[in-house]
Amino acid sequence: MILERLFSLAGRTALVTGAARGLGLAMARALAEAGAHVVLNDIDAEALEASCAALRAGGLEVSAAPFDVTDAAAVRDAVEGIAARRGRLDILVNNAAIQNRKPALDYTAQEWRRVVDTDLTACFLVAQAAGRVMVGQGGGRIVNMASIVAQVGRVGLAPYSSAKAGLTGLTRVLAAELGPHGITVNALAPGYMVTEFNRALLDDAEFVRYVEGRTPAGRWGRPEDLVGALIFLASDAASYVNGVVLTVDGGLVAAM
Question: Is the distance from CB of 37 to CB of 62 less than 8 angstroms?
Fold first, then answer.
């Protein structure tokens, strides 16, 4: 009973950005299965509604909020609207991200800004809007999706790696600023996961074998490998955990 109470999200409202597919969808499903009403966000309204319909068919409480996380006005309006409709916003998962793999010397300024705007600045915008709601209600949980490439370098990921490193810094600053208001701000740093986001890597058999050999767990991660850590950070079980970047990578970063 104690564990059930600590990890239950019953009665809470969560927002997951970039949730039409992949890790975002898996995390939205897990939060709903833990008892939360989950608002799924994505810029792809059609895919978003299809994902919501599938979750509803499974008996889960979800709703859709299609908006562009890089649009400050749209973010503000959407978050305020969710809080008004639901009465509160307890959990934010900042997951929306894009990727553009190419050598650092070949990026244009526009390409750089597009990745950083989506993977870092948008996370700030959504966290800022959600944080204002959470301060007003006296508490909440923010979980940012970082990456192991914020800790180790990888060829072809200059803006993505930089954005994720910036996001870990933002996580710690927000933890310090919002902690006195009963809000915890933490991050998850996944390793290599089997998702559509990594399709280009998964199609490279040599790289697949490299990751398997480099990872002590001997395999790539799956979306379900991430959800336990998410539920922990989103629940009362982590009420005294603040400013932490929790790596979920099968031991890849820890191994030589």
Answer: yes
Residue type, 14: A
Greatest distance between any 2 Cα atoms in the chain: 56
pTM of the model: 0.94
Place of tokens 């370098």: 153
Count Cβ atoms below 10 Å from residue 77 Cβ, excluding itself.
13
Catalytic annotation on 160? yes
The conformation of residue 197, written as its DSSP 8-state character, comes to G
Catalytic residue among 107, 160, 192, 240: 160
Least Cα distance to 24 among 197, 166, 236 occurs for 197
Q: In the chain, what percentage of residues exceed pLDDT 90?
A: 86
Residue 252 gets which letter from DSSP? Answer: T
Distances (CA, A) of 247 to 2, 90, 147, 253: 26, 23, 8, 9
For residues 109 and 162, the answer to whether their CB atoms sit within 8 Å is no
- Cβ burial of 30 (10 Å; 0-12, 13-18, 19+) is buried
One DSSP character per residue, 158-192 reads HHHHHHHHHHHHHHHHHHHHHGGGTEEEEEEEE-S
pLDDT tens, position by position, 101-146:
999 999 999 999 999 999 999 999 999 999 999 999 999 999 999 9
Per-residue pLDDT reduced to its tens digit, 33-82: 999 999 999 999 999 999 999 999 999 999 999 999 999 999 999 999 99
Distance CA 156, CA 154 (A): 6
Distances (CA, A) of 222 to 22, 152, 179, 217: 10, 20, 31, 12
